[in-house]
Every structure is written in C-alpha cells, then in structure tokens.
Amino acid sequence: MRRMTAAEAATLLRDGDTLLIGGSGGGHAVPDALLAAVGERFRDSGHPRALTALHPVGLGDGKTRGAGHLAQEGLLKRVVSGTFVNSPAVATLALAEKIEAYTLPQGSLSQLMREMAAGRPGLLTRIGLHSFVDPRLQGGRQSARSTEDLVELREFDGQEYLFYKPFKVDVAFVRGSAADEDGNISMEHEAVTLEMLSIAQAARRAGGLVVAQVKRIVPRGSLHPKMVKVPGILVDALVVDPDQWQTFETEDSAAYSGHQRVALEDIPRLPAGPRRIVARRGALELFEGAICNLGSGISTGIANVAAEEGVLRRVCLTNEQGNIGGAPASGNEAGAARSPDAQIDQPYQFDFYDGGGLDLAFLSFAEFDAAGNVNVSRFGGRIVGPGGFVNISQGAKAVIFGGTLTANGAPKAVRQVEQITFSGAFARERGQPVLYVTERAVFRLGDRGPELVEIAPDADLQTDIIDQMGFVPAISPNLRKMEPSLFADGKMGLEARLGAPRSRAALDRFSTLVAAE
Q1: 3-state helix/strand/coil string of 13-44
Q2: CB atoms closer than 10 angstroms to residue 132
Q3: Is there a contact between 186 and 229 (Cβ–Cβ < 8 Å)?
Q4: Looking at residues 258-272, what average pLDDT do you find?
Q5: Is residue 431 classed as helix, strand or coil in its secondary structure?
Q6: Nearest to 66 by CA among 40, 30, 92, 93
Q7: What is the pLDDT of residues 7-61, one digit of tens each?
Q8: What residues contact 429, with CB distance under 8 A and at least 6 apart?
Q9: 439-480 confidence digits (pLDDT tens)
Q10: Could you tell me which of 122, 116, 113, 114 has the C-alpha nearest to residue 149?
Q11: How many CA atoms lie within 13 A of 454 on its CB side?
Q12: Could you give the CA distance from residue 5 to residue 395 in angstroms, rounded to a whole number?
C-alpha cells in the first residue's frame, strides 16, 4: 500500500477534476489535512484549477477549515453539497457568482453515492418534489451561472419523481481512524461512519483514485474485520495525520465513538429564554417510544428538555448521520451523539427516514409563509442549503417546526418565503400533520396555510402576534393559551404525561391539540 504525504496527495488532482469528499459538518471524519494540502498547493502554484467539489454533507468549522480550504477563486468551478453552512467562504463565492453552486438534499446525495458505486443510472426518488430542488422551481441551483440540470422530473407508474444524475469521480478523499499495512480502513474512533464505503466504491468504479487519511497505521491483520469500513482493495494511497482530531472541537470523545457510556441525564439544562420555551412546547408532542429526528438549530434543545424531564430513555432520538438513540450533540458538533445505541451508515438512515420511519421530526425554520411553506436554505443574503431537512421533513409522519416569531425585530412569518425548502401544499396533499411552534404562538397547517391555535398566556393577539407577522393567519375557533408550565422555571411534568405509545390513528391526528380542531 502506497503511503504519501498530504502534499503529495494534493498533486494527484488535475485541472477540471471532480473531487468527492467524505465527512460531515464540524470535523466528523473530515479529511481536513488533505483538503488543507489542496488549498496550499493552489496558493503556491495556481493548480489544480476548476475543480468540481462534491460532498453530501457540509464540511467545515464555520470559518476556514473543511471545504473552506478550497474556497479560492479559480480553484473551484462547481460545488455540489447538502449545505454550505459549515463553509461560509464557499457560500460567499456562490453569492458573488464566482462558482457554480448547487445544494441538494443530503440524504439524496448520500444515497446517490450507492447508485454510482453500483453503476446504476442515478437516484429516482420523490424527495425534493415541490421544493426548490424540483427543476420546475430552481433545481437546487444557488447561483445564476449554475446552468446544468443535475435533477430531472420523471414520471413512473403514474407518479412524479425526481431523478438525481450521477457524477464521474476522478479522486475521492475519505477518512478513517486507522489503516493496516494493506490499506484496510477502520472507523472505530469516529463519531459517524457516513457513506465512506460507497464513496470509495463509486470512485473505484469510475476509474478514480481513493486516498484515505488516517491517524495511525497498524500491523497487517490486527484490525477486526467488522471494524473495517473501507477495504484495502478500494484504497490507492494512505496519508497519515497523527494530529487528527475526532472533530474540529474534540480530540477524542469515547462517548461519541461508543467506547464509553455516559449518563445521558448530564445534558445541561437550557437557560431561560425563547429557545427553552420553543423546545419545551415541541417536547409536549413526544410520546412513549416515539422515534424522532432533531434538526440543527433551536430544535436540538428537545434533547436538553427530554433529559431535564427524565424522559430521554423513553423516546428514541436520532440524527441523519446515522446515530440511533443516546443524546444528539448540538452546535458545531451536530451529527454526533453521546452514547448512542447504534451507529449505522448514513444512506441506511436516510432509507429509514424516506420510508416513513420517523414518528416525529423536530426541525427549525428560518421563515415560514402564508401558504405554510418553510425556508431554511436561502434567506437574508445567505446561502445555507437544506442539509437533511428535505428528506426528514418529507418523510416523517408528523413535523414540528420550531423558531422564534421574529429575529432582530423582523418577522419570520412572511408573506412568501425566499426559497421553498418544505412545501405546505405538498404536505396537505399527503395528509401530513404540521405544527409551527414559536415562543409566543403555535400554528398548525390548515386548509389554506398556518392557523393560529395557541398563544402565550400574557400575549396580546393583535400587538404580540399578528402585528409581528407578514401575513394575517387564520384564527382557530378553539384558540387557547399555551400551557403556563412552558414559561415556568421548574419541570413541566412531561414524565407523568408522556403516556403510553400512541396508536397509528392517534399519531395521524398528531396531538390532542390537532384532534380538537
């Protein structure tokens, strides 16, 4: 097995190549040493130029690391990713029309890696229909110079589908914990495993090169075969980075990797404020045995509330990167989980999500509108991208969107969202229950759009709610006050009220609140 330095690996890239990159978010299995070497080579020599960077998940520390190393004018021609939130410098290039930029659903890109590995024509799925990913809207484009159709509308058996086209991969960067002398790659100390195997297989099938970054080399035969995620037959070169951290913030967490169990109840209590109120109101939708996803942002507070209320072990919290159970991490380390019960590859997690496996999805919103649409992908002069939001929101049996009613004095309930990441009309068509939870009001998706069903006990309907919105919502004839316990300092008694597992019929009604309507 050939070993090389990161600088030598960077020279494998030619002008115009497509670089496929594994990893997730704030450093989870991100081959950062390799990316840094590519960025340094370009600064020194002006090559490689006009790369296409393809990575299912956003990569970076929100500053310069991860995909940020590549954010240099001339180095990149095109970026295709689930999100740019971790690499704002890439988003800046897109806003300035310096690159072709596409943000596609994280789950669909993850699953597409398997299709590419198998040589199938692409991915056919209903995920993304009627969102900005739909070619009838924007086709996932985030810059005007992005003219190629990466997604097509197809009809099969009388139903509409989206077809995600494959890519030809020239070089793939993957990362693991260790490699043996034959190039077998293990990931036992990583917080997530993602689609590293599919990435390597896709590159190999296309005749591309696979370079693996690892922390250490171990003797031949010393890795347990079940710990090997990428077999050596798929690896062309190894780069050893002895200073490799588990994430950009954590050198090594045994709780993230699953080597050590920690008390889940040790999750810190949310401080008083809007985020705590929104998370607590969302948590009222939990029921015994509920399988949930917690999206990034304000909705990650559901885990803190569940721990505070003593119900964390009575529900199953998951994240799209593949963790099942435990306590999902938040902030820059979102994607990891402390003491998960299982860690599966990301494409399989999205198979479960797309197939309706989630009982409840708790997702944050940047803005929602009079039609019930939600936007998290492009707003306020920022390109963020959907991440796993589209898969999660379309696949879940019921969705709770959380956020504050205003931000810096501006309404987040607007007449029309800038970009449709979730379609209210499509949710109604599918009979999907939806709530929009804020710190002073709760809405449900009604026949025409959001309908106000709860207001804070001390809120004035006109001045505190309607005047703070960009449209006038329908008002439920059964409008009632939000529970006072949501605003109190102590526990709200969630453990006693969690109740028995709901029947499917009860779940379809979504809650006693929606059933009362």
Answers
A1: CCCCCEEEECCEECCECCCHHHHHHHHHHHHH
A2: 23
A3: yes
A4: 84
A5: coil
A6: 30
A7: 999 999 999 999 999 999 999 999 999 999 999 999 999 999 999 999 999 999 9
A8: none
A9: 999 999 999 999 999 999 999 999 999 999 999 999 999 999
A10: 122
A11: 23
A12: 43
203: its two tokens: 């590159």
User: In percent, how much of the chain has pLDDT > 90?
Assistant: 90
Mean pLDDT of 357-362: 97
Which residues are the active-site residues?
320
The answer to whether 172 and 209 are in contact (CB under 8 A) is yes
Q: Choose among 175, 401, 421: nearest CA to 279.
A: 401
Which two structure tokens, joined as six digits, stand for 60?
């970076």
Average pLDDT, the chain: 95
What is the residue whose two structure tokens read 């402390």?
A: 338
Residue 376 pLDDT: 98
DSSP H or E stretch at residue 360: strand 360-364
pLDDT for residue 278 = 98
Question: What does the chain come to in residues?
Answer: 517
Residue type, 139: G
Residue written as token pair 């030619």: 14
Q: Greatest CA span in the chain, whole angstroms?
A: 71
Region 390-418: mean pLDDT is: 97
Going 285 to 290 to 295 to 298, the CA torsion angle's sign is positive
Q: How many CB atoms lie within 10 A of CB 336?
A: 30
